[in-house]
# Entry
Amino acid sequence: MFRKKIFTYKNKKRIIIFCIVLVFTYTFFIHFNSRNVISVPDKMIIYANKTEKEVNKQSNEFDKIFKLTNERFKFTLYSAKDIINDVYVDNLKKQTLGVEFIYSKKQKLKYFSNFSHNILEFDKLYFPLIEENKKIDKYSIVHTFQYGYNNHYINSSMGNLHYSKQLIEIIKNYK
# Structure
């Protein structure tokens, strides 16, 4: 009776390669999910009920809003087929629930899109949010953000963000 050897040289090699790939993949996703995609802003403004409120940088809400916003980012981003300018974003601020991050220095966001790595430069970001009773689908504005440079909003919306009910609740209830 012949016993088939499970751990032949060829099988050992495959197992080792599989383990290396598994460890690399796990490490990559842990690293991506644990890092800040965007930097902590110098100023944060909440837009709700046609009013704006600056969030104190020393407050717990500031940290929570930043953390939850940062967690919304996915591995890839896409550029929406819209045209963004200051008038468009000002209208969004008046009509939607949202949060704006303002930076005193130019920021860079590295992202992956269309099989290539890209860099987005900005000094402010606006994240429109949506309330529960509104329709939400994968093309909804809630999955996008607008970016500005030299104090003007430019180009098109960037998208593919996760929806965050917890973030919406914090912003709706901010005093």
User: Anything to note?
Assistant: The chain has two domains: 1-35, 40-172. Residues 44 and 55 are 6 Å apart (CA to CA). Helices lie at 9-34, 60-71, 86-95, 165-172. The beta strands are 43-48, 51-54, 78-79, 97-113, 116-129, 144-149, 152-153, 158-159.
